[in-house]
Structures are given as structure tokens and as C-alpha cells.
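Many introductory courses stop at the sequence. We go one step further.
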Amino acid sequence: MKKNKKVWLIAGIGVFAIAISVLFSIYSGQAGEREQLENSLSTAQALLPKLTVQREELKNQLAQAQALLDKSRAKFPESVESIEYGEDLFEIADDCEVEITSLRPSMPTDKEAGDVTYSVSSFVVVVAGNIDNILKFIDAIGTGIDYELTWSFQLPWSVDVKSVNIKIASETSTATINLDIYGYKR
């Protein structure tokens, strides 16, 4: 039986040694992982103030960019309707043999009349040409008809001529026309 005790003792020591080596290996792995996590945490903590400052700078840049965009939009109030109206005005000017030297639209606004909504755009149009052709142009945009050329056109908008200031010259006269264009919105 003494041999049997020795075998059990050696087997117990072997199992104990294996258990200790497994536990040591697990502890070493966890210690290494803990050290790596601590390094990552300290790196993240070091980066956090820099990232916070950078985030605030980016917020400020966004606010500045938004303000610049709003300012730029205010400088260019023309909408798609204004561009289409401008194209029509240039076509009418060409038909009346006058030259549009300036076309300044305002920001369109919406006006309601019952169930119908209209887009209202104000324009300042400066035209140059002989006085007869300038008068034809003014009449054509106001009525949509040129009586001398016997043509008429149907535009999807109507015009209210607010004021006309004509400067008569011997060669080329000019007229500054303030008008509102009413377009139907669906």
C-alpha cells in the first residue's frame, strides 16, 4: 500500500501542478489583457479633451457655414420662377427690339385669394432702345399682345406694372419698369 500512497501523492501533486499552471496561464493572459485595456483607456482619456475641443470647433465652423449660406441665399433671391419669368421677359424684349440692360428680382412671396395661392415676384427691369419699341415692350408685358406685329402669347403668369420711368435720349432711350409678376401655384 505504500506504493499506492506514493502514486496517489504523485498524481495529486501532478494534478495540483497542472491546476496551478492553468490558473497561472489564465491569470497571465488576463493581466496582459488588463494592461492593454488600461493603455487603451489612458490613450482614450488623453484624446478626449482634444476631441472635445475639435467637436466644438466643428460646431462653430458649421454655424459659420450656415450663416454664410443664409447670407448667400439672401444675395441671390431668384427662384426657379424668377428665372423662368426672366427668360420670358428677355424673349418679349427681343420681339419688341429692345435690350434688357438690368433685371433685378426680389424674393418671391405667396399670396392667397380664397383657395388659390399665387407666387408674387417683384422685378425692376431696365430696357434700352428707341421710345416706340420701349412703349411696345411695356404694353406687351402688361397685356401679352403686340398690336402692330399682330401676335399674342399666353404666359402662365400675369403682370402688374407698378411704375415706369422713361429717360428719352436722341439715340437710345431707357426705361426703368417696376412690376409684380403673379404666378399660379398648385
